Amino acid sequence: MKIPDQSTLYEGIADRPRLRGNACSACGRVYFPPLAIGCEKCGASETHLRPESLAASGTVYSLAQVHLHRGKTPAPFTIAEIQLDAGPLIRATLAPAAAHVRIGDRVSAEWAVVRTEDNGDELVEPVFTASSTAAVTTNGAHS
Amino acid sequence: MRTPLAQLRPVHVVGVGLHPYQRPSGTPYTQLGVHSVRAALTDAGLRWSDVESAYTGTAVTSMALSRLMYRHLGASGIPMVQVENASASGSSAFRQACMEVAAGLCDVAIAVGVDKPLNVTDPQRAAGLQNLVGDRVAPPTHFALLAARYMHDYGATPEQLAAVAVKNSRNGALNPNAQRREPRTIEEVLAPPQISGTLTQLQCCPIGEGAAAVIVASDDAIARLGLDRTRAVRVLSSAARSETVYDLENFDAALTRETTEQALAEAGVEATDLDVVELHDAFTVEELLYVEAMGLCKPGRAATALEDGEFEIGGRVAVSPSGGLLSMGHPIGPTGVGQVAEVTAQLRGEAGERQHAGARVGLTHMVGLGAVCVVHVLRKD
Ligand SMILES: [Zn+2]
């Protein structure tokens, strides 16, 4: 069974990840990660911040391959800034197979296993890879 | 009605002092700080009992650290407070000291930056914020992302970015208070270890400790205490801002542009009037971004201007003659105060081998996590 590693940030298990963002009903700004408490753009209170499911697809704004890292993720890995089609500029990890991705390329998310529990459950997170027609139309290709 | 610093009573830097920036050691922060204060008092020709108010810029050492340090100068009962504003802590402490003198609440105030990396904390964690990358984006990666986009936008090369560290290492080599004292070639700067993206270790500022102190005074105090007016440096403006919503424009650059514009306007100075600039070059790409954001050259032109020697000591405008954060170091609390000490030395003509000839107008700039930005303009009359 696949379980989202951070269920506040992405929805459970469809073939392709979707992000749990939110939008301000007062000014229209869309947030990911979702913003609580009040709107950064206009100051509207949390009652104006409505959950909004965002497609995990967009355009690469910048890229950095991390060569030296002290945390639990083994280096090298690549971090991308991605402007989501829904608006927000986010930071995410690229799939190892996405090494050829460049600034300006279209990318979308697929699931990657963070860790496998003793009972066989897999904790998964979205990582981004080059968008391709095949990836979008082939059900379960990455699930 | 809002009144900028320049229209309050004049504030002058009358004394500066440093404890060299260095790798973290067993020396207590109290000793680092007192060393810099004594140096600043000697430089000014003042006694500790002349100082009426103290602001301590500090971010990563401990809460409540001021009195444990200042008591070693003789407990005089003056007000003291820590000013925490991430990398801009020292600049913010200096701003508070200037404002107190300008407002007439006291005649002599001191800003001291002191830090040892003992308690580095994380506001995102405190706020319980989550994101997709967890701990995978450390500061070098934040700036590696900026570097990649800058190179994409303007066709700059990794070698052109590395040239910032080459220049600043030459300046740092001439600065006895710098943490990195070795002049580096482009080959050395580009050599491994590579940290993130195109950024190598020598393109990232070192982790360190140290202290810096700056004493500011009113005209009254200069007269009453018999200070050397010919060595006083006027603080023309103090601007501080925080991030707004910029969409795709990089927030540190946007914030630098806004804050510098305000500081220059309030000082009645054009960017082209600046002789020396100390800026937040924690990572090489920042110097290129910020000189453009400050209006020292046109967007996309910084790498070429650097190659042409425009930002060297003796060039069109000396950028980070101290060695900057890359070579002088970035002990956090001291950094912004140390910038004021360097610009003061330059404007007095006392910077020795690092002297930028004829320096009259200088600017200091720090950005800090948040993001925040603090800019000061100083002039020797
Ligand atoms: Zn809003």
UniProtKB/TrEMBL annotation, chain A:
One Pfam assignment: zf-ChsH2
ChsH2 rubredoxin-like zinc ribbon domain mapped to chain residues: 14-46
Domain (ChsH2 C-terminal OB-fold) ranges: 55-111
InterPro entries assigned: ChsH2_C, ChsH2_Znr, NA-bd_OB-fold, Thioester_dehydratase-like
Signal peptide: none
Protein name, per record: DUF35 domain-containing protein
TrEMBL record, chain B:
Pfam families assigned to the protein according to its UniProt record, in alphabetical order: Thiolase_C_1, Thiolase_N
Stretches assigned to the Thiolase N-terminal domain: 27-180
The protein, known as: Thiolase
Entry-linked PANTHER family: ACETYL-COA C-ACETYLTRANSFERASE (PTHR42870), NON-SPECIFIC LIPID-TRANSFER PROTEIN-LIKE 2 (PTHR42870:SF1)
Source organism (scientific name): Streptomyces fuscichromogenes
Domain Thiolase C-terminal: 243-369
GO function term, MF aspect, one: acyltransferase activity, transferring groups other than amino-acyl groups
Source superkingdom: Bacteria
